[in-house]
Amino acid sequence: MFNSTKKMFALASALAILTGLNSCKPKTAGTAVSAGAAEKVYVAPGEYDEYYGFVSGGFSGQLAVYGYPSARLLKVLPVFSVDPEKGYGYSEETIPLLNTSHGFVPWDDLHHLQISQTDGIMDGRWVFANANNTPRVARIDLTTFKTVEIIEIPNSAGNHSSPFITENTEYVVAGTRFSVPDDGVEYPIHTYKENFKGSISFISVDKTTGNMDIAFQLEVPALNFDLSHSGKGPSSGWFFFSTYNTEKAYTQLEVNASQNDKDFIMAVNWKKAEELIKAGKGIKKTVKYAHNKYNEETHTASSEIKTEILTLTPDMLREICYFIPCPKSPHGTDVDPSGEYIVGSGKLAALLPVFAFSKIQKAIDNKDFDGQYDGFNVLKYESVLYGEVEKPGLGPLHTEFDDKGNAYTSFFLSSEIVKWNLKDLKIIDRSPTFYSVGHLTIPGGDTRKPSGKYAVAYNKITKDRYLPTGPELTQSAQLYDISGDKMQLLLDFPTIGEPHYSQIIPAETIMKNSKKIYNLEENKHPYVTKNEGDARVVRDGKIVHVYMAAIRSHLAPDNIEGIHVGDEVYFHFTNREQDWDIPHGFAIKGANTAELLVMPGETQTLKWTPKQAGIWPMYCTDFCSALHQEMSGYIRVSPA
Ligand code: CUK
Ligand code: CUA
């Protein structure tokens, strides 16, 4: 039977460190910066950065776009939360994107990002992001930097092990953090062991359009799925999920889910699952999930509720999924650029195990098992282990790789990045982080072709690094030069929300496909106004459509009469500009629904139901020309 010795003392001391951390500023804080740091991050005015960094905004539900090495914040990209700066989630066109099977959800928690890949290298077409709370995966189009698709994941809760992708973006995976019964089913919580279960979903991505669909969902034992990463090269066709809570605890998890010496990394042969599904072996299951799409030609979004997924039988699953014992609640599971090594980071482990994919294959072939877990074969730890990194640090979380065969692991408790060599597992260097690093990212650091230039640490605690701003401080990240043997801290910079994972990609890859305007001639919005002469007010009973056209520096129509209290008025606002970076905004006094921000060539709609007679001024909110203040008008609302 699988070893489950309890080591309460070690655990208690680890938990004590965990909670009593970093109450004062280390003396080294100010001196840790290397000489010449300023020069290395200086990007002269008018010059571009070398890399784009896409950084999770954590509980803000958004993601941030930075230029590296300057760490200039370029944009906040709205994904799972409404964002007035972009008009996201306010216009009639973007509201459907935040629809779920539970209705409109205006705020979620975004943890991980992954840029689409071709042959295991970032291709810069899309970035995928996960919503943790109400489980969803989003796709952002990197030609327009717009969220264009969001798919909900049924039978999941705390969609944390997500949205990691396969080498050619065939699938995005989503593993559930909370084990739960099927949606809509309730059991006594103390029947967790019998009635709760885990799920991992494979979402297919269309090669041409990027459109997602849930290809299949696998029901797996009740475990907490934490993170995951795709195999590559020799391990192509496999996916690795870190899991914790082999104890199957459902109360006081911080103690009860930390008892066993080892939890698991689950290795899944998704190629085999795909074959079974393609051979018609999938079983239909009734579910409910929203699938939302934004159409960049019509500039409108739709939300559809879908009701069916495919799953495989437990018998089939046992031939596809294997458990690898991994010390003490593994968090990150990271596959090296060659695809042979898998690093498991046990949050409470005193060592870092590295597994070899070739040994995993051999152990499966030889049936070299160490018992079973819920009927699934557990591989023998010693048989699949390549080696252990000894005394690496405290609280390992995540590992990324450079182009020289080195690995970099973040340590939350000892607050440092540790550089070690993949071949001999010897530690090369350590560098403190201020404070308590979570994720770290190297450009391409989880792909087949990493760069060895920079690493960015995304920290959980800020404390004394910046000017105080009341009880809450900005979150913090740090940029390191990793081109030499020793890591060098170059820069601190603030982030939005709490940064979790990020992706860093050469700027060139994104810039070459970047879109500057929407072509007005190609605008297929049903209420577009392409020519100013077509601007008009059309009444249909209580519903009024205002076809509005905007160009520097006036609105058409600029005086609107004949609106009555109780009418449902739709302002379809077309920005007729065809110049890069000339948005127009739209605001009406007292409109309690929203404002708009409309890009060149785009149409967006503001819905307003006036409740009071009067004169209601309207104007453009985005300073667009010397006569921006003149870009205004009046709406007369008469009694019902
Ligand atoms: S988690 Cu944030 S530090 Cu949600 Cu990726 Cu590891
Ligand atoms: Cu348009 Cu100001």
TrEMBL record:
Pfam families: nos_propeller. Its main location: other. Residues 1-22 form the signal peptide. It is found in: Cell envelope. Keywords: Copper, Metal-binding, Signal. One of its GO terms (molecular function) is metal ion binding. InterPro entries: Cupredoxin, N2O_reductase_N, Nitrous_oxide_Rdtase_Sec-dep, Nos_propeller, NosZ/Cyto_c_oxidase_sub2, WD40/YVTN_repeat-like_dom_sf. NCBIfam families: nitrous_NosZ_Gp. This is Nitrous oxide reductase apoprotein.
